Amino acid sequence: MTDHPYFISCDWGTSNFRLRVVEAATLDVLAQRATGQGIQRMNEQFLSGDRSDRYRHFAAYLREQVDLLPEARPTFPIVVSGMASANIGMQELPYGKLPIGRQARNLVSEVREFRSGQALVLVSGVHSETGIMRGEETQALGLLDELDPQAEGVLLLPGTHSKHLRYRQGRFTDFQSYMTGELFEFLTSRSILANSVRDGVWNTRTQSAFLSAVQTGCREGATAHLFAIRAGHVLRDTDPVDNYYRLSGLLIGAELHDVAVEVEQPLWLAASGSLRILYRAALQELCGADHLVVLDDQLIERALLRGQCQILATHG
Amino acid sequence: MTDHPYFISCDWGTSNFRLRVVEAATLDVLAQRATGQGIQRMNEQFLSGDRSDRYRHFAAYLREQVDLLPEARPTFPIVVSGMASANIGMQELPYGKLPIGRQARNLVSEVREFRSGQALVLVSGVHSETGIMRGEETQALGLLDELDPQAEGVLLLPGTHSKHLRYRQGRFTDFQSYMTGELFEFLTSRSILANSVRDGVWNTRTQSAFLSAVQTGCREGATAHLFAIRAGHVLRDTDPVDNYYRLSGLLIGAELHDVAVEVEQPLWLAASGSLRILYRAALQELCGADHLVVLDDQLIERALLRGQCQILATHG
């Protein structure tokens, strides 16, 4: 896959920093480190410091962390994806354009000599007409092998800003972004609805509240039905846990409106934990189970590493 | 209208407190006081104090403020509407039921002797199947005389939690609530979109951005299009002021979805300032101007007083 039997994976997000030493052939992780030193904090420190060299400021931290990583050798190339290529990151790179396939040729990257004999491959994100992403494109690349090369469908990556990637014959051709997770976080914790919802277990009752709301959100959108959650709580003492799932269902249903019409096309779902449960249930409700493929948890866990490995092979 | 030539209007909201001495026949305001001592702060003080008598705690503050009010006489009845009748207020009253007409008989009220010879009329809110309100019902009552008694239509009260009151032959029969204002506040100030929007002037360009978004929001809902505002800003450097109106248009368009189909029925708009401009433009775009009635600013300003005056006549 790449000339390098090992590489160092750096996933540098807005709030988190994660390093892993990876065996390329197996994607086994030999060692790892994670810190809360995300791009945002790094940027604040840079802006309050001497501001002379952005790359140097970020590279110094990366070097310090790489040196603390067991199993890392000074010849292993480092692949950095996520927000490190944003304007508040290590070095700004323009967004790449779709389509991207297995070789990821359209991805924009910058290769630098990190230390003598050690390369650093900084990966940019991609954009569509209405969306931008930095990080998810690398994860999506790592899932490409799991998608039927003859098919046309949509890969779903739920999260704070959910992404729906349109796939056709081995390539991602377009995508949409949704603020579902961020809206849910705001509505459950800081809005007028906060007192009417409470996180709780997924059971037949909460599932029923969820699925009914998924239908409503998909058919009529979410915003017109939000306040009814509070009214139900105040007037009829509806259970806050049911309301939590009702709210989730409204937002997820609205997000899935566009894919709900594509019942004849495969939908690949890449999510873990509770998001996996919710999105699977919602997609089965809206589209049936026939064309839904829920990707394996271990595949999803390794998707970023696999994507970085492919980027290293093409761009390294 | 009422036996009392004068009354004291108390508008006690979550965050604000307002007193006015009103001449009943003309609704002229002879004197007024306003403070930031809303229900929420009053409640916190009550909970951290001796907690023995909720009514007494609120009444003490009201008495102090009434005594500071010029022109107030100890015989003028006091009408209190807004959040004072909520569970965190002066005394909890159950929500009244629709329909409500000019006499407001279905409104729930509590009359107490505030001081010897001085009555206090505490007014509760009303509920529908999916909405609750405390305060707007009094304002809506005060606008009833402006609505064609033979007509069937909708009275729109835009705001943090917009209300759409269904009207038929002199009575409000149902209503819906929308979180439009609260969502807009969150999205413009604390979400991922905050850096992509900026408040600015209403002109032909921002109006065009707004109206186009109104159409999209009404047709397809708001949530699927929110992230595109950020993408447009990052990728095409769209103007943050245009984006501000775009975001506003999406949310208002989604709110107006249900009334947009009622093009043959009158729609009465009660809004001031920038909300008046935006909702009028959106309603004209979606429904045409033929059935839209934009209520006079002075009427809206006096609506609460007129409503309280009517409540005093029936309940006092």
Structure description:
2 copies of one chain form a homodimer. With 316 residues, chain A is of the alpha/beta class. Chain A folds into 2 domains: 6-146 and 304-315, Nucleotidyltransferase, domain 5 (2-Layer Sandwich), CATH 3.30.420; 175-297, Nucleotidyltransferase, domain 5. Helices cover 39% and strands 23% of the residues of chain A. Chain A contains 10 helices and 14 strands. Chain A has helices spanning 39-48, 54-67, 136-143, 180-189, 204-220, 226-236, 240-255, 257-260, 273-287, 297-315, and strands at residues 6-12, 17-23, 29-35, 78-82, 96-97, 109-115, 118-123, 126-127, 132-133, 152-157, 162-168, 171-178, 267-269, 292-294. In chain A, the strands form 3 sheets. A 6-stranded mixed beta sheet of chain A has the order 3-2-1-4-7-6, with helices on both faces. In chain A, helix 3 packs across helix 10, helix 5 (204-220) runs parallel beside helix 7 and helix 5 (204-220) crosses helix 9. The radius of gyration of chain A is 21 Å and the shape is globular. The model of chain A has no long low-confidence stretch (mean pLDDT 95).
Q: Gyration radius of chain A, to the nearest Å? A: 21 Å
The total count of strands of chain A amounts to 14
Largest sheet of chain A: 6 strands, mixed
Oligomer: homodimer
The CATH H-level superfamily of the largest domain in chain A is: 2-keto-3-deoxy-galactonokinase, substrate binding domain
Keywords (chains A, B): Kinase, Transferase
GO molecular function (chains A, B): 2-dehydro-3-deoxygalactonokinase activity
Protein name (chains A, B): 2-dehydro-3-deoxygalactonokinase
Pfam families (chains A, B): DGOK (PF05035)
